Amino acid sequence: MATFLLILKIIGIVLLSILGLVLLILCMILFLPFHYRIDALFDSEQEKYEGTAKVTYLFHTLNARAEASKENGVSYFVKVLGRTIMSSEDEEDEDDEEWDEEPKPAAGDRKKTKTTPPENDASLDEFLKEEMEKPEIKWEEPGYAGEYKELWEEEDKADLIPTPEEKKQTLGDKIRSLTEAVKRTFNKVITSFKNIGYTIKDVCDKIKRAFNRIDYYRALLSLESSKKAIEVILREVKRLLWAIRARKLKCYLNIGRPDPADTGELIGKLYALSPIIGKYLVLEPDFDREVMNGTFLMKGYLQLYIVLICICKLYFNKKVMRFYRRLKHGTDK
Questions:
Q1: Which residues of the chain have pLDDT under 50?
Q2: 272 and 192 in a common domain
Q3: Does residue 238 share a domain with residue 210?
Q4: How many CB atoms lie within 10 A of CB 245?
Q5: CB 72, CB 92: distance < 8 Å
Q6: pTM higher than 0.70, yes or no?
């Protein structure tokens, strides 16, 4: 009996340890934030423009990075546990492999391949003798081209001479063929007008359906329940944007216009926004030259549990889900 209780105790400890480990991992996933960082550098004098965006999560278990520059273009990679699962270099390698693959010659083309000389001396002498005895085609000789020119001129003259069937054709046959050609042209014109009519009708139907959808959405948005649902959605979106806001934001600008007066006017307009962006923006005017240089830095994070709370609040709100179903019904029309 004591052995049985000891076994149950060990099983319970193992199950509790597994449950505690699962809860720990779940809490880490929910409460550890996604960190993001965006850097930008631009220099109009050296024509240098670079940008970098980076996202890390769970002690760099997930690491994503994207870079863009004028010289190297766009590149990116996504790593999980240090292993690359997605990268722009992999796509480039696949494209290179597709271009490097040469098409295999067809069965008929294999016979037209260049003959290689044999390795034996006796066979080599026969091969060279056969090659020397082959007649050479001299494309530059006037006689060779003249024969083809005479042939082509005779073919052109033959086209101008009426055939016996054309000579036997009477005036009535010509009138009949002309009437049939006119009928075919008339039928084509009638068909074109019918197609134009069908196109106009289709466009009118689409416009009518668009107006019906506008009336449907206008009636939907005028409901009191829809207004309350929109208020809930906007409140949760605002909360999500506040959670994802930049914790650190710095921007440095070195600005100069061709005319010093224009530079002063531009700097004055930017300083007018100082109550809003004054602590994030550093301005350095240059009245001697036209220039636009600067750097940009933005850092922040987002915790997953906030996104989960917002989604749950929207999903379990009856007015929001009813509003969503009505919107979906309108798009299906």
A1: 105-115, 117, 137-142, 144
A2: no
A3: no
A4: 12
A5: no
A6: no
